[in-house]
Design brief:
With about 120 residues, the protein is an alpha+beta fold. It has 4 helices and 5 strands. Strands 2-1-5-3-4 form a 5-stranded mixed sheet. The termini are close together.
């Protein structure tokens, strides 16, 4: 599944693109990634980029740093269950933001595998 996400990730936009946002993404294990996204793309692109990382948890929610709040539509559960997700610009992300990935406890692996098969 992670391999498929890696293949489907859109090309990183140029730093000169006026619609670009640069994000510093921090995983629970301490790994950090810098990545540019087009603000007119869905939060699913952000979610899938994180999911494709080897160190990423299987289920998670992504939060803004300040004020700390979840990004709407950008949890594993929301991406798997919703057909319409907000754009990155609608999620309130700015030119340069820091995001935190928080693992979601998974009591049922059946739930996650059902989600993976739909993606």
């Amino acid at each position: 599944m992670k391999g498929r996400c890696k293949e489907e990730i859109c090309e990183e936009p140029s730093v000169d693109d006026p619609d670009v946002i640069s994000l510093l993404i921090k995983l629970p294990c301490g790994t950090r990634f810098n990545r540019r996204f087009n603000k007119h793309h869905s939060v699913k692109e952000l979610h899938d980029y994180v999911y494709a990382q080897d160190e990423a948890p299987r289920r998670y929610q992504i939060f803004t740093s300040f004020p700390r709040s979840p990004i709407s539509g950008c949890s594993t559960d929301e991406v798997c269950s919703s057909k319409t997700l907000p754009l990155l610009k609608e999620a309130g992300l700015n030119k340069n933001d820091t995001l935190f990935v928080q693992s979601v406890d998974d009591d049922s692996t059946e739930e996650t595998s059902d989600c993976d098969s739909d993606r």
